[in-house]
C-alpha cells in the first residue's frame, strides 16, 4: 500500500495498490485516518468508473496516476484515475470535495485509448482499443489532429475535442490501464 502522512502527523491517506489476487470485492481502494482512527474509506469500484482501467503486476494493482499528493497545507488530498477523473478529498473528514473530468471535457469530447502512427502531418488515424469517456461511437477508427507526438507508432490514451487532441499534460504519455479486475 502507498501511505501518505500529513506534516502534523494527524492525517493519513492510504492508497490500496496491493490487491491480492486482483479480486476487488468489497476491498477499499482509498482509506482516510484522523488521529489514528479511520474516518472514511472508498471501495475501488466507487472510485474508478471501469475496473478494466487498471494495470496489474503479480501482486500490485495501479488504478491512479502517480501524481497524488497533499495540497493546501495538507488539508486536501488529490489524485487522478486512469478514467480521467480528478479527485480532491478533505483530509479532515475524508469526504470528496471534487470529482470531475479535466477542465476541457464536455459533450463534444471523447476520451479513448488506442494505437496510431504519426508522420509529418498533424492529422492521424487512431485504431480505438478502448472507449474511456464521452459519447461512444461505433466506429473503430478516429481521425484527429495533434501536435503532441513526434513521428512514430504510439499507443496512448487521448482526449479529443472537435477533432483536436486536447489531452491535459497530467494525463499525457502516462500508461493507462488496460487490464480488468475480478469481483
Which terms would index this structure?
elongated, 1 helix, four-stranded antiparallel beta sheet, five-stranded antiparallel beta sheet, 183 residues, mainly beta, single chain
Structure description:
The chain has about 180 residues and is mainly β. It has 1 helix and 15 strands; from the N terminus they run ββββαβββββββββββ.
* Beginning-to-end CA distance, first to last residue: 20 Å
Computed over alpha carbons, the radius of gyration is: 18 Å
Overall strand count: 15
Unreliable residue stretches = none
How much is the average pLDDT? Answer: 86
Number of helical runs?
1
Strand arrangement, major sheet: 13-12-11-14-15
The largest β sheet comes out as: 5 strands, antiparallel
| Share of helical residues | under 10%
Q: How much of the residues is beta strand, in percent? A: over 45%
Question: SS-based structural class?
Answer: mainly beta
Helix and strand arrangement:
Layout: E1 2-5, E2 11-15, E3 28-34, E4 37-43, H1 44-47, E5 55-56, E6 61-62, E7 69-71, E8 76-80, E9 86-90, E10 96-100, E11 109-118, E12 123-134, E13 141-145, E14 152-161, E15 164-165
Antiparallel strand pairs: 1-2, 2-3, 3-4, 5-6, 7-8, 8-9, 9-10, 11-12, 11-14, 12-13, 14-15
Brief characterization of the structure:
The chain contains one helix and 15 strands; from the N terminus they run ββββαβββββββββββ.
Amino acid at each position: 500500500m502507498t501511505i501518505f502522512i500529513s506534516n502534523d502527523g494527524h492525517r493519513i491517506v492510504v492508497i490500496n495498490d496491493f490487491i491480492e489476487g486482483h479480486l476487488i470485492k468489497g476491498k477499499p481502494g482509498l482509506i482516510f485516518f484522523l488521529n489514528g482512527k479511520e474516518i472514511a474509506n472508498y471501495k475501488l469500484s466507487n472510485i474508478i468508473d471501469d475496473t478494466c482501467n487498471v494495470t496489474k503486476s503479480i501482486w500490485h494493482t495501479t488504478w491512479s496516476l502517480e501524481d497524488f499528493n497533499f495540497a493546501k497545507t495538507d488539508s486536501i488530498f488529490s489524485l487522478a484515475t486512469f478514467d480521467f477523473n480528478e479527485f480532491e478529498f478533505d483530509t479532515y473528514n475524508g469526504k470528496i470535495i471534487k470529482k470531475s473530468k479535466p477542465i476541457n471535457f464536455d459533450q463534444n469530447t471523447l476520451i479513448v485509448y488506442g494505437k496510431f502512427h504519426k508522420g509529418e502531418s498533424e492529422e492521424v488515424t487512431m485504431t480505438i482499443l478502448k472507449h474511456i469517456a464521452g459519447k461512444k461511437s461505433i466506429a473503430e477508427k478516429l481521425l484527429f489532429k495533434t501536435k503532441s507526438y513526434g513521428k512514430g507508432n504510439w499507443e496512448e490514451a487521448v482526449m479529443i475535442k472537435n477533432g483536436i487532441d486536447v489531452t491535459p499534460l497530467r494525463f499525457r504519455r502516462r500508461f493507462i490501464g488496460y487490464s480488468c479486475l475480478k469481483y
